[in-house]
Structures are given as C-alpha cells and as structure tokens.
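Appendix B, record 7
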Amino acid sequence: MASIARKLLITFMRFFFKHLYTTLAWAYDFVAWASSMGQWRSWQSVAIQDLPQGDLVELGPGPGHLLLQLAEVDRKVTGVEVSPQMIRMAARRLRQHDFPVRLVRAYAQRLPLPNDAFGAVVSSFPSEYIFDPLTPREAHRVLRPGGVWIIVGVARITGRSLHDRFAAWLYRFTGQSGEPQTDWDDVLRKVGFDARLERVQLPRAEVLRVIATKPLDAQ
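Structure tokens (predicted):
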C-alpha cells in the first residue's frame, strides 16, 4: 500500500510541477519557498558561485531571480525558457529594475545560439529536459573551450527544526532528494565534457552541484 501511495504522489507531483511552469506559474515563487522552507533562493544561488568570465546562458530561468542577480553584478546573460508565462514574469522582473531583457523562447535541446560563444551555461533545478541527451550536446556546442556548464539539481535538507525535518522527509518520499547514480556523468563525458560533482554546505541544506567543463582543446 505504501508503494502505491508513493507512486500516486510522485505522479501527482510531476503533473503539478509541469503545470507550475505554465498555467500555475503565478504560484511558482510561493510553492518554491514553501516546499524548501524558505531556502529556495539560496539553493539557486549555488549555481552562480565562482562563474568564469564571459557571456552567460541560463537554461530555464523561470521567473528570473538568477537573471536579476547576475544583471545586478553587470554580467551579460541570456535566458532560454520555453514557458511563455515564465518569460513574461522574468521580463517584468528585469524591467522593474531597469535591466535589459535578454530572453529567448526556445527548447534547451535546440538552442538558437552561436557555437563557442559563451563562458558558462547555468541550470538550477531544471525539469526533465535535463535528461534528454540533446541538452548536454547543445550546452557543449554553445560553450567556448574552457567554458563550464553548472547544474544544481539536488538539495538535501539538513536543518533540525520540525519544519525542516518534515520537508526533508517529503523530498525523500517523492524522490527529489538523494544521491546521484554511479553513472551520472556518462552522458556528459560522451559529448566531450570533463565533469565533477561538488557538495556545497549551506546552514540548513547540502546542495549538489555538477561542474562540466568543455576542454580547451575541444573541437
């Protein structure tokens, strides 16, 4: 019975999060804040630590919080997002702070961007497109040699408050928290990346960050 309940909950969660990027986009920030016990923005920020120089691409910027953070420190970044609702939210957020809007509606698997043009690609808590083999191929293509693709996709809540413990249980129960499989880097290496996994310790969570580097001698 427990396994059936888990399968039903996971199915519902996938359906819910799919619509959270479209018809329920208006609720995205609240759901992200509530489900992470207020930690979502700090988890996201792990993706933009120690970024190299050069123009950037963010895949799936959602409502644009990281775009705004990067714009505030004078980084030139292009957001690639497939959801028109999210593009409108991100554009509104950037305009409210008088920053230029560089948003492209496209799939991560077919980036309308030039080859070897960017210093970094950033993905924070991406949806299922990240598992499509075409996505790392496209990220590799648009990066210049020596560029990096940074992916933050898993967080493990370690806080000891009652709320944190409940959130940690829910993440484990729905399969959103855990360790990567032993072959997690196979697809990245097949398209030419050198990849490593980092564990970033935050006050109430551990965030896993993948750093995939395009070699300097890449063709």
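Remarks on this record: DSSP finds eight helices and seven strands in the chain. Residues 16 and 24 are 9 Å apart (CA to CA).
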